[in-house]
Design goal:
4-stranded antiparallel sheet; Tachylectin-2, Chain A; about 0% helix
Length: about 425
Amino acid sequence: MNFAHNPILAPDIFIPDVEAHVWEDGRMYLYGSFDIQGKASFCSDVHHVYSSDDMIHWTDHGVVFSLADSTWAKDCGALYAPDCAYRDGWYYLYYCVPDGRNGVAKSQSPTGPFVDVGLLEGVWGIDPGVLIDDDGQAYLYWGQLTWGKVAKLKENMVEIEPESIVECPLTVAEHEFHEGSSVKKINGKYYYLFADTHRHGDPDRPDGRPSCLGYAVSDHPMHGFRYGGVIIDNFGCDPGVWNNHGSMVCFKDQWYVFYHRSTHGADYSRHVCAEPIYFDENGMIPEVKQTTQGVGAPIKASTLLPANLACELSGNVRIAGDQESAYVLALTKVHNGDTATYRYLDFDGENAFEIKLCANANCRVELYLDGKYHADFKVAASDAYATARASIAPIFGTHALTIKVFGRFTEVKIDEFSFSKGEKA
């Protein structure tokens, strides 16, 4: 697809926990975990790197580091969220494993392969994040819940200064910090992005559901962080969504937030997404919504759009693998009254709607624009995907589209849809 959209990578690529960097060549590079589709666990044992010069077309640089490449962690099972830093001709990959230990690997290329340096002594806790300040001092952030810490890195970038460790630069009580440290210096202030539990408590998980990316701001890289708010909340992307983890980066004079969305009705199989963000006159970041358009303009309504690009779901429906889908993934397990929302579509008088779905009983499809009812039509049962068409009142302007399905079926699957004009159903 030659237009911007979320998720930003191919549907069969699951990269969560992304740290985005723009290096001296001007390209955007993504460093993240690597989920295996449908596997009921976080992450795999490899790291990939993806890069782009337009945030639409992405290059997969393959496996740049794996547990097999580690000198000390070969049997640890998985590689959790990484980060990368550049100094004096070397790129340093900071990685961690499920038991909380961290390591460092390095390469003279941002796309590796990274050669293991070894265990990062004195660091225990997941999700390392690195900041190199204007004066050249590097800082390492890591941890989860009460294990959040920050320390200065030595000039060699592979050791911390143990005496510099600061306990809990963010706390559960003050910031609802969960995990996922990512720190940037912007206009002289230090912005600490993290997985935030301010919303969506879960009685089965007393520590709360960290579906938000929150941020805190300080005048110092190691302490004094004041809670700023939520930048984005991925709640609603999937009925089983659990966490969020991402970063901020400036690319071609525009700031973006990177985050992930779950699929398959689970905590796992997470896609990387991105949204533009802005700073107000006080340096605060207004919250943005999850969108389908992502970093680009609203998508033309006449585009044949894969249903798996829904940015918000309600009910039982989830984005999951479907061997009959033309796009690897489809909207599956749709139950009566479930909805899928797409933000934003650009309409120019389209007066017909076409949808490809499979329902094991007759159903009714309703269309809503910005939450307001617009049209409905009936769809006959089918054993395989079939296309249904309907005439609708013309639509103009930019809108969030919501598709809602009713009926006495036990399941509906939706593969794609589009709008057109000058046609009759």
